[in-house]
């Protein structure tokens, strides 16, 4: 099967199927965001033992070196390279991503930089996101669980009833040190690629596409997509274009000083322009301020009076939305109940 899949005369989709089948047989299938076809193959439980025996046999002095020294890894890199080429085919038909481009993170970054340099449309950038999703199977999968306990064990102690009426003690609490929020997290192995991807999206003013990536990365212990220096540069770039999107993006990054810098810019903007219709109903801001912990800084420092008033307005707006939704639901239930009674009569 290895010889068959290495036949360059075969169509790409046939090679992908053959390689995917081999990955399933050895019990190491690579999930693909591109291929919807799922192989229902029972893994060969004795593969690892047989593979180890085979490696010892072919690497013995009497037999020389194996023709496939790292078979499973070779299958994986070839499969991912072929899938990546298929993803890019509608955008760049002549482009070919080879296993040599994916030997390690360094070669992958070099390859992606070339791809990203030519990205000038939304469809091109979406294809690059799909490519990065494929590459996760090589460089990320299997590492996410490494520090999962370190992140999740910090959970909420809801059984502790020591709230002290809440508000009075809340004002006495020191502002949250958001700089330590990412202490148990680490950079994504492909963070250089993601940094270039996000820079291109910002250059094309596709701010709404960036936020979901940053949001999803929060669930992974090794998911931070931007190095702090790059995040500062990104903040300055986005602030010059759209202060609201800059604020949202920075609230999703674990860099306390950067968040406070962005909060200062946000406060100044509110002081100059007041609360506009655009930001008056943006509940994403309320969610992100609560998540990041910046809310304690806004409440405890008079320096952020405008931001505090804005957050209070958002809380009021959210409460009104909830009340209206509940009223509509109750009215609907009463109407349904009346109709049922009339039917019974």
UniProtKB/TrEMBL annotation:
Top-level taxon of origin: Eukaryota
Protein source organism: Rhodamnia argentea
Listed PANTHER family: NBAS SUBUNIT OF NRZ TETHERING COMPLEX, NEUROBLASTOMA-AMPLIFIED SEQUENCE
Designated name of the protein: MAG2-interacting protein 2-like
């Amino acid at each position: 099967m290895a010889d068959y899949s290495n036949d360059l005369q075969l169509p790409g989709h046939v090679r992908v199927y053959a390689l995917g089948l081999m990955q399933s047989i050895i019990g190491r299938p690579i999930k693909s965001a591109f291929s919807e076809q799922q192989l229902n193959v029972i893994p060969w439980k004795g593969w690892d033992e047989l593979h180890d025996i085979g490696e010892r046999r072919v690497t013995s002095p009497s037999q020389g070196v194996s023709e496939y020294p790292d078979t499973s890894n070779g299958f994986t890199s070839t499969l991912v390279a072929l899938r990546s080429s298929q993803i890019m085919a509608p955008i760049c038909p002549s482009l070919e991503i080879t296993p040599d481009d994916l030997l390690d993170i360094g070669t992958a970054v070099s390859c992606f930089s070339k791809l990203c340099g030519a990205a000038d449309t939304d469809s091109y950038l979406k294809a690059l996101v799909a490519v990065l999703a494929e590459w996760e199977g090589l460089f990320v999968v299997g590492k996410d669980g490494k520090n999962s306990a370190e992140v999740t064990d910090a959970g909420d102690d809801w059984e502790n009833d020591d709230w002290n009426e809440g508000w009075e003690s809340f004002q006495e609490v020191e502002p949250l040190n958001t700089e330590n929020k990412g202490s148990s997290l680490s950079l994504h192995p492909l963070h250089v690629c993601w940094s270039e991807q996000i820079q291109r999206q910002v250059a094309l003013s596709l701010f709404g596409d960036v936020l979901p990536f940053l949001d999803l990365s929060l669930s992974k212990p090794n998911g931070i997509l931007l190095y702090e220096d790059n995040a500062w540069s990104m903040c300055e770039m986005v602030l010059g274009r759209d202060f609201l999107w800059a604020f949202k993006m920075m609230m999703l990054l674990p860099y306390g000083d950067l968040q406070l810098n962005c909060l200062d810019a946000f406060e100044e903007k509110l002081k100059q322009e007041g609360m506009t219709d655009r930001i008056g109903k943006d509940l994403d801001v309320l969610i992100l301020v609560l998540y990041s912990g910046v809310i304690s800084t806004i409440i405890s420092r008079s320096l952020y009076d405008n931001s505090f008033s804005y957050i209070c307005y958002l809380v009021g707006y959210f409460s009104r939305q909830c009340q209206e939704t509940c009223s509509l639901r109750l009215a609907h239930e009463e109407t349904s109940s009346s109709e049922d009674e009339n039917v019974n009569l």
